[in-house]
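pinned: reference chain
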Amino acid sequence: MVKVETSIHNEVDKAMNLPAEWFLGAYVPSSRHLRPLTNQGRGDVYVQQTYLTGASYLKRLFAAGIDQTRGVPYQWGGGWAGYSKRFGSRYSQFIIQNTLTSAGDAALHYEPRYDLCRCTRFWPRTRHALLRNFVTYDKTEVSTRPQVSLYVAAFSAGALATAWKPDNQSPWRNGAWATAGQAGYGAISTWLQEFALDIGHKLSRKKAGR
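pinned: its structure tokens
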């Protein structure tokens, strides 16, 4: 049992030091097999995905920029002061969502990491990436299940975010919008995770060829 625990923990350590892991978050390369995480491994993945991943900050910065352009909530005004409030709101909502998702995945023994497709062609990889926003692997790491924790967490985080927003939004409506946002932006996010390394390699080759 100790050897199994050590082996799994070593796999987590390797995963935490993959190329672009600092930007994409915890993922499993196509060359490795998925193995169930220990509780410590899940904790490492949670910290990495929530606080130590560059893409998570960029997504919130981008979303806050859209909110700023739309002027919502209008009570927060414009300028850097308004933008910082919108970014803080977006990131706080993300922390709540990822915390609830991680807790739910741990309880259900669901896989929290993104696994790169073992296929090579564009459309099969795209299909794999889009589906991973809606399904994940159970404890067998073979059978897939609906992303229940992810979407329950998205709704809950959206509803809870109304507590600090000044325009008296309906928690139910805000939760519904957050769920729809997870379906849309989440699919884009998993697609970018799938192809980010390819894009990075192409950009590196172009830069080296200059």
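why pinned: The chain is about 65% helix and 5% strand. Residues 171-209 form the longest helix (39 residues).
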